[in-house]
Amino acid sequence: MAVTVPSADRADTRPRAGGSVQTLLREFPQRLDRPLTSYYLIFGSSALLIALGLVMVLSSSMVDSYTETGSAYSLFQKQMLAAAIGLPLMVVASHLPLSVFRLLGYPAVLGSVALLVLTVFQGQEYYGATRWLEIGGLTIQASEPAKLAFALWGANVLARKDEMRQLLEWRQLLIPVLPGCGVLVILVLLGSDLGTTFVLMAIFLALLWVVGAPGRLFLGMFVLVVALVGIMIAVEPFRMARLMSFLDPEADPTGSGFQLLHGLYALGTGGVFGVGIGGSREKWGFLPHPESDFIFAIIGEELGLIGTLLVVGLFGLLGYAGLRVASRAREPFVRLAAASLTAWIVVQALVNIGTVIGVLPITGIPLPLVSAGGSSLIPTMLALGILLALAKAEPDARKALAARGPSRVQRALSWLGLDNVGAPTTKAARNQATIGSQQARRNRRR
């Protein structure tokens, strides 16, 4: 006869909350060390930043859009179109082989130089800067794709020299990367774009650091970059005015310090939890460029300290994942490209946030993935797709992806003659991948 145990006397076999949290903390290092951790961190942080950016562009641009076009959604629709173009580019790039990115660097940097030259002679001037070029009814900022082009080209040049054991002298480290960076910097400076100049120099320094430049050479290049930035600020009166307003914005509250002061007002108004999405007061004609350069201030006003910390945390997570890819890679190109792309996005984000909170002079540089502007969003999404492909090139990630078998996108690219970086290419490898995939499915059933 069965004996029923009273419920009060039964042992509680349910996992306790404290125990589960302790287990999660104990297993966190092992979970973080999984083969595709870098891939998922890059994908997750990028997706959240893009989604947040679309929401905040809609909120911050409604007033100006309605004033200029009669529709509150005109600028948001352009941003949605740019995201719709960038998303398939990001997905396709994440499945392309590394050889495509290495070949892409040379034509991309030549095309960027051509666009920058056209911008210098035929570009449109806004607010004292010539950064925009109109082609076929579309207005593009040529300096934005130049960042991606220089990162890929510089990584490929140094990777080839590393593979051929040519990086033994300082001349091999600097030529032709330094002259190439100089050409891009001069063309960008002719358009009075100091922010992009700073980002290009940051990419150059990141390449030197990863390739293992001697300490004296790296320090010398760093001092040279700082000196050039100082000279560029000193020779232009409006840059010097921005520097003075950064040091003391209240000295000229209706002039050079106006934008910074109202950005700080927005951040102060938001408090900890913000006034709510759509509730910003500064976007009603007070804060210049609330949808682009100073969108971080609107985030702080509407989402509060929590929202700003979320943005900073997502960029920190993206930076960690990118550097993780660079540190775990075996191929020189993967290390250099991952580091340069990560440096571009993270440094640009830090510069933008630094200008909004008043610790850096105003440079007019957008917040990656968040600020309005298709010229910035599309190249950045393409760069993240490349970073995803580099993450899948990690040795352990290759094995994990091979065990899963090819995805639909991989099969489509294979039909076009483009094999995925992690896809098996030989018959023996495909058979091994099939066996591994079947074994993984049996393990999941158990």
Our Rg estimate from Cα atoms comes to 25 Å
Number of domains: 1
Q: Average pLDDT across residues? A: 82
Please identify the structural class as seen in this structure: mainly alpha
Q: Widest sheet: strand order?
A: 1-2-3
- Head-to-tail CA distance between termini: 33 Å
Beta strands, count: 3
- Show unreliable segments: 5-18, 420-438
Sheet-strand content, in percent, reads: under 5%
Largest beta-sheet characterization: 3 strands, antiparallel
Shape: globular
Order of helices and strands: HHHHEEEHHHHHHHHHHHHH
Q: How many H/I helices?
A: 17
Relative helix content: over 70%
Function: Peptidoglycan polymerase that is essential for cell division.
Subcellular location: Cell membrane
Pfam family, one: FTSW_RODA_SPOVE
GO biological process, one term: peptidoglycan biosynthetic process
Give a brief outline of the structure.
The chain has 446 residues and is mainly α. Helices cover 70% and strands 3% of the residues.
Describe this entry's structure for a reader.
- The chain has helices spanning 17-32, 37-69, 74-93, 98-122, 143-163, 170-174, 177-190, 194-211, 215-235, 237-247, 258-270, 295-328, 332-357, 374-392, 395-404, 408-415, 427-445, and strands spanning 124-126, 129-135, 138-141.
- By secondary structure, the chain is mostly helical.
- The protein has one domain (35-413).
- A three-stranded antiparallel β-sheet has the order 1-2-3.
- Helix 2 (37-69) runs antiparallel to helix 12 (295-328).
- The longest helix is centred in the last third of the chain and has 34 residues, at 295-328.
- The two termini are 33 Å apart.
- Belongs to the SEDS family. FtsW subfamily.
- Residues 427-446 are annotated as: Disordered.
